[in-house]
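Justification of computing resources. Each target in the renewal requires a structure prediction run like the one illustrated here; the chain below, 258 residues long, is used simply to show the kind of job we budget for.
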Amino acid sequence: MVHFVGAGCGAPDLITLRGHRLLQQADQIIYAGSLVNPALLEAAKPGCIIRDSAQMTLEQVLDAIRKIEAAGKVTVRLHTGDPSLYGAIREQIDALDAEGIAFDITPGVSAFSGAAAALGHLGGAEYTLPGVSQTLMITRMAGRTPVPEAESIERLAAHRASMAVYLSAGMVGELSSRLIRGGYPEDTPAAIVYKASWPDEKTVLCTVGQLPACAQEHSIQKTALILVGDYLQKTPSHYERSKLYDPSFSTGFREASR
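Resulting structure tokens:
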């Protein structure tokens, strides 16, 4: 049996209870060493085989899984954040399916959730503010992994919705230019969140136009999420309050009181 487990965005206590239990039971843990907090491996039982997939190819990962599977034992494939986002799990799942190897998936706290939480005291904790944006776009800049033309930064920026940009901290100059070219005004609020929930977390508030200078000033080139949108505005007057908790609004659970 193979368990794909989301490690969460960094802090070891942000893994789910199920994910922690599976780590304790695993005979082998293959973890994404470039991104997963190694403190999570302290849950491993004595004798558990631990492998860092940052030093492995897909074929090597699958071979390690097969060996443990042949012995009737359990592998945990520990991915950063939530495995469904930039986790490269589909190619592993297809291979396991083809060989009849059973698996399941335990979700985790993604970096976009951790980043919003990190910005809570700065007003950036909710991507979907009424009257501002009801859409969160999760995307990345094209690098060695291409991005479909229909999903280019410029085309997405035209919506001017809330945006979380992964895997792009080393390209903030180009990202800033393309966001502005696509439709975000240069003074649109933005944030850089480095290693959300880790002990060395950094949060930097700026504007879309200031992204390159702020990244350089704080020496941030990787392991950071770029957030963009008017939801990051500090003043509470720019959004509408929720209808769900408005006393003048009836719901299926209560009548309007005024």
